């Protein structure tokens, strides 16, 4: 029964946490018995079971309960198979979604070597606009996961493609995550490549794209500032904030510090 498998998946994370806390008693139980079930249910025929498996996997990754070897040898290969060009449409959409969500939880090396090439392919998927939209909505997070060098070498050309996509929802998603992409690049790339690209979005024929671009204009401009003099920084939750200067802190030593959040780094598509 699918409901039984779904319930089972919901119990996997707390069981895994218990096993981790009791590791001397159960040193290999999770890796031998539970992890194979999670991986297998990622390809279950039932939609609800698959979603429960995906949620369980993300919780396990967030809690750092999955070994690096399992990530590289079990999780990534199945996601690459599910997101292959000839994969079923529904499976492909789910796979690219989970790839984007787990990128921030994995090491930069794993993301760059195992997942980034497939992500770049999916950005150009001509069959499913849903796949491209997920890529566009999560583009800033992927850039942050792989760093400046890989972003400028591999991702910026794909970002240009998505910013000129025929579907306006794609261009809108790019406008919404523009600040996060810009923050990952060098000042020269911001000036010579991203600035003209942003002008094209702010002049887009679709008013929804223009509106999203205007909302991202201030945060995009802020990425040109020198953090040491402007006091701008990216918080752990992905928001751009202003850090008070030393002079302000000293003059208001009795006042609580007040950081101003400007905007979230990326906006997920509906």
UniProtKB/TrEMBL annotation:
Pfam families the record matches: HEAT
HEAT repeat residue intervals: 115-154
UniProt-listed InterPro entries: ARM-like, ARM-type_fold, HEAT, HEAT_type_2, PP2A_Regulatory_Subunit_A
Cellular component terms per the entry's GO annotation: cytoplasm
Lineage: Eukaryota, Metazoa, Chordata, Craniata, Vertebrata
Organism annotation: Fregata magnificens (Magnificent frigatebird)
This protein's UniProt keywords: Repeat
Protein name according to UniProt: PP4R1 phosphatase
GO molecular function ontology, one term from the record: protein phosphatase regulator activity
